[in-house]
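Deliverable D4.2, example record:
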Amino acid sequence: MTQAETRSRSHRRTRSAYSSAVSRGELSSFTRAHLLLSVAALSLLLFSCSGEGQPAAKDEGRDDAAPTVTTTTSTPSPTPTTSTPSPTPTAAPEYRNFVAEGRPEVSEITVYDAPAGDVALTPPDQNGARTEQKITNPNEHGVPAVFLVEQLDVEAEGELWHEVYLPVRPNGSKGWIRGSDVEVEYNDYRIVVELGEHMLTLYERGEPSMTIPVGVGTQDTPTPGGVFYIKELLQPVQEDSVYGDYAYGLSGYSNVLDSFNGTEAIIGIHGTNDPSTIGADVSHGCIRMTNENIGRLVQLLPLGVPVEILP
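Output generated by the structure prediction step:
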């Protein structure tokens, strides 16, 4: 089977354990065919990225109303392939990432503090109030909720549960979700960003496959470190956008900005209309690269790819 064919296979994983699913041929890669491309007006692009726009200092809040979102989705057609089930159960390789995607019929995914435990609560707001932690599915851009899985298939009270990274503040938050609320797939990619080196490295099946120079956050608005994941892909409708041709939204947020242009200060990876800023500390926290390089990533990466940001 060719590398392209391997990327194109798309079988859903349901409730069985990984090794059993592989032995029955039910588990395959989370491919680009499952990545929903959200086309939105640049004015709504929510990342704390370029040198333009109006960031709000952390804890100061914003009164700006979020712009109206116009969204369309596109799903590329996979190349037809056949796959042979493994004859015996197989353990997942170390480089494999499992990704949980909200089922279409589930409009909200409730987060719990433990398998079959209590519903998790959000951090206190400015008034000290806390609410139940629920993730909207799909999100405001019409993209299904996705989660990077930390622990897969923990059984409690007759149900399967997954511990996942959450796309919420504070960065690095985790929680437990019901296996019945999501479908689990996998990918074999990983991104590592070295801020001091202004370098992004893409790993495929544990081996470096692409090295890309990038621009990152300034000293006053630094790119946060930690483990995040790709949760959505946006395409600005304007030509010659400061965000370039495409922008990935990550699960993380700025540590110093509460909002940017009236929306949440989400960290992103995007292109640029000013290649001279690559290799410098120039953004409000996002990671930027040339349009050519962001286009190369878009051709490869599905949602749910982990992104580790190092000093």
